[in-house]
User: Fold these one by one.
Assistant:
Number 1:
Amino acid sequence: MCYCSALVHVPSRIKVLIIQHPQEQKHPFNTGRMAHLCLDNSELVVAESLSEASLRRLLQPHSALLYPSLSWLPPVESIEPESPQSAALEQLVVIDATWRKSKKMLHLHPLLQKLPRLSFSGELESKYQVRKSSMENSLSTIESIALAIQALEPDGDFMQLLQPFERMVALQLSEMKR
């Protein structure tokens, strides 16, 4: 299923660093790569584990992790949209993996656990009908990035990032009906 015709190019002030689990790289519904293809200011790194030195080289001074505030994670500063911290934010770090694998990746990277965190609250509804999550209120990587960057940079139109995602889902659903 090719969604290439729906790809968009979206500039952003905040760089998005996507750390993708190697098993996601070849997954046909890979929304981390899709987000990277659409975001002009993004970097995609495929690795389950990075050395601390490599991770430090990737992180910018004012970085935050886009991840739910789960009880097993150490308490850190929360980034709220339209706050002084969000205005200074240079980089949003996103883990692209299944929930189980993303937890493992966080355990392997204490440096990521210590970053200020951006999380969503309330009821979230994913349009990712072709792949299910084991966690309630979870979104695909591209949906999470679009919501986060839109909240952090409200003057931009980051919801257009969802165009190739919606195209991919529509193609998959039409194929499943055959």
Number 2:
Amino acid sequence: MGPSSRQAERHARQITIPEIGPEGQRKLARARVLVFGAGGLASAAIYYLACAGVGTIGVADDDRIELSNLNRQILHNPHRIGMLKVFSAQHTIMGFSPETHVVAYPRRVESVTEMVEVIKEFDAVIDCTDNFESRDLINESCILARKSWVYGAVSGFEGQVMTITPGRGPCYRCLYPSLPQSSDNSARAGVIGVSPGFIGVLQASEIIKHILGKGSLLVGRLLYADLLEMDFSELHVSKNPTCRYCGGHMSMEG
């Protein structure tokens, strides 16, 4: 069976793309994507996953909306200040795309065991967190669960994104063999809304390509964007032989 008549009409412009078509739209409708975080990166990623017709989106976050979030977190609005972000995200996407099922996890997942159990229910993961420790936990859990995930980070006008696919390319710890001492939490580092918007859209694009099995993913390729100078560069990363997670070799080329 193809997409329903309502879905076909809504997604008509992308179904005509040769790389998608009715079969690709069916894949998107069956797909289950888990997003860690419900802030700036997640706002763009979740919106565009729903736009594409991804059938189920999980959102995990224990944070509540603050006024200072609203320069970049477009899932939320001033009337929801104090609300848990996952429920705001759920409400927004239900209004925008009623056929998208949003699963809310209003809690912080702090152990690998618990995270693996959550991740196992999904096809792929997007990291929209704002600290190295959370990303390290996501990395280990996705490797154990054999799930691909997309890393993203922003600061000021800058951002970076990379896709990690267990067994195929380097992991997050190949990129960062030792976690930096200081957090890059966006609550402390300045950020303008266009940066998480841009990087979040790239994260959604990577997941959509992963679901469709089309195009070239950013596996072993850290894409860096400087929106102030409109400059883009790529750092090539391979496996690190001493990595305790994936045990390959790392080499970097400018």
Number 3:
Amino acid sequence: MQTITVHTTQNIDIDYEIAGIGERILALLIDYGIFIALSIVGGILAINGLTEFGVSFYFIVVGVAFAFYDLVCEVFLNGQSLGKRILKIKVISLDGNRPTFSQYLLRWVLRFVDFPLTAYLGALVSAIVTDNGQRIGDIAAGTAMVKTHPRTQMNNLVFRPSDDTYVPVFKEVSQLTDDDINLIADVLHNYMRTRNSMIVYNMARRIMDHFQIALPPGMNDMQFLETIIKDYSHIVAQADML
């Protein structure tokens, strides 16, 4: 199992499992399948009397959507296309931050080198020979394709409020973002997989230093991080109900 270690801006090292070649190919086929289905629909419309102009316009729209599909999906779906989401893989930045638009744009531009210009061999060979399994576009953009964690596993890992009567322990968590919480969840997931208690300790200290709070009596670092996510989940859920 190939892994990649990403050093985040919070000085936490997170290990991700690199997405396999088979998973990437299958995700690509799923994405292509969407547009094959749309093309079949266009053919059916043409057979059933849609005007020549209508058919041409339809395929122009489908063609434009196909050209920009990966870029738009990765920007708005946090590094995933529909195929990647189904296969539970995504694009991440090697600097530990969420990939920027310029990174997504660069890897999208270079997909024309990775795929059509090299008959897909550019992407395949590059992903095989590079340590982080990167295609040419990933190397240039400073990104990589990794596996995500199934939500069911994360729900088992992190305790969440069971009812509306729950009272948050740390109300300061309202200042955090979804990306902050996802990073904490990644730390907990990595601990469960590696048993490296230092990543839990470092993340807990980062949060306590940021909010100038102390670890409550009887609560360890693991429970502290779980409580942070529990508090955040409750506060966000209550805000959504307003």
